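Structure, all two chains, one model.
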Amino acid sequence: MKKNLMKSVLASALLISMLAGCGAENSGSESTAGTVTSQPESTAAVQKADKIEFWSTKEDCFSEDTEEFLKQTGITVEATFMGGYDEMVNKVMAGIAANDLPDIAQLGQRHGISQMYDSGSLLAAEDVMPAEIMEDILPGFWKRFTYQGKKVILPFQNSMPVLYYNRTAFEEKDMPVPTTLDEVISVASKMTEGDHFGFSTNKDTPWYALALLYNSGVHVVDEQREADIAGEAAEKVFAAYQQMACADQSLPANQHATAQEDFTNGNVMMLMSSCASYAKIQQLIADRFELGVATFPRVETMDIPMGGNGLGFFKTTPEKQQAAVEFASFMLEPERVAKNTLEYGYIPVRNAAVETETYQEYLKDPNRKTVHDQLSSLGGRGVNPADSLIWESVSQLIDAAEADPGLDIGAELSRMQESVDAYLQEYAGK
Amino acid sequence: MIKTAMPAACRNTADTKPLHFDLARRGGALLRHAVLIFFSLIVLFPFLWMFFAAFKPEEDVFLPGFHLLPSRWVFTNFADAWNAAPFSYFFRNSFVCAAIVVGSQLITCSLAAYGFAKMNFRGRKLLFTILLAAMMVPGEASIIPNFLLAKNLHLLDTFLGLAMPSLTSVFGIFLMRQSFMSIPDDLLNAARIDGCGELGAFWHVGLPCARSSLATLCIFGFLGSWNEYMWPMIVTNKNRMRTLQIGLKYMISPDLGPQWPMIMAASAMILLPVLLLFVCLQKYFIDGMVHTGIK
């Protein structure tokens, strides 16, 4: 009996240790892309880098492009899908803590960039990319990706919020397309009938609310890195959500997770969403109705924030850094950028891409022309350390405003401002 | 043929039950079954919706009104879902990781629980209280320390790294302890009298009596490992070492949104092993409750 027991214990221990050893990919030489290391890596470092590590938020990790890059340059891009923007931030933060980062990564604009840069692991794009490409990037993109006076992230797949509408329903009711927030509220109310709602926003609700805040002249975080949220202008924005959801019942309260599907099924007449979703929305609508795209509603001004992602360069060996820059330049070739735009609906980040025949062909679609015309209003605010807190706070305030007609929005905004201020002060003190 | 009445003593007593009693009994059974079927359908409905959505074209998934069945059957969703991510690796990795977790938890939790339940030593209660307090720490709070530990032990992108945080379970220890506490000391004493040491009593008496709890631990351990997303995402950098829940993420674009039919198809495939496990272990739940060993 004792022998059998010992055998079982030993077998289990052996199995566990075998499994620990097997299945490990390069476990003896884990990625050290974030550091300059000693032997044997330094021996390899003096040779031209033939491999770089790329973390992507695109499911297929740009497989066609990386294969073509390999054919052209001989450099292998080990691309790994890391999930969405939030997962990417978690991965990069864990990588910073463990000193295990890729050479280049797709970073969402939403949050985390400030912390990555302040950690010292992220290089500024302007310090590594050729001037020729940097100067060709459309100026409006730099507003978001500038931090502490430096252009830190290279714009890549970027978008703007726009207003999609059911053109067929609008024409049937002879309804004008709204151009301001007040008009959206009014038209939404008129278009609401039975089970059909007049308006909704896609599930990334804070992005559209922030766009409305910027259009209202609210800074959110000013140049001195102080919160500037509370006030009449911001109250008006959230009051609009409250009015539409509670009083007018033209906005299905807290049903943003399926807002896109509700719009493409014809249950919602207007939808604030990303221009990057244009191709997908067209596909989902099929032949149910005709899709229209309008510019984002103006409030006091037009100051449209950018969405999407950019390419971030992490500290690595000089050879791998050069290869990463070469890869980024390849991905930003004008035709490639134009193709990206055509396939999804992202906005072209370079002047040279705008001038290509592919993009000019793209502009023949009046909906896409509308998005292109909105480029002149591209602006928004730069990344800051409180981005995550602001995003969460705005999301919670929208949820609360849509659920509670009696919510004191002014008080909530004051609380938000205090918490953002406290966070920024604590961060600055670190 | 002349029919004569049977003497009363010879009549089958069942035949003498009043008719209304029989109807009431059958009616009660019918009502019970109807209620159970109703609630079963409520529980089953999301799975049915998932199954049928896996066969729908994308534009039909969220049609207004009730449309359970597809307007046209799209069988390629399953193939598209399979090809969207390296699911063969993901299935392998999830199975291996779950096997390690279940095996490890069965050993560690049962041994620890037996000690807490049936062995007297100084500080036993305090130690158990401290162990329970560890359950209060949320998993997310320990992700970064665990990651640093895995990194320093060179366990990134390994099966052991994937299974590391779940090699034992405080909940499992608690569950097994409760089970061992219900075993009469007489049984264990009988084993000791027969010449068993403590481990022998554990192996020959304790474990067989705790089969139902072991089966429960299996299921919880398997499910916990099978459904894990955040830890495998953090601890792996290579596709070949990723697990199934990460595979689902391949069908959700941050800018374009989810591809629902493919997600439903992948979810249906991922659910099958879990269902199989429940079917296999279901009998042990009942078996453990029925049998006792005291004579």
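Chain A has 20 helices and 14 strands.
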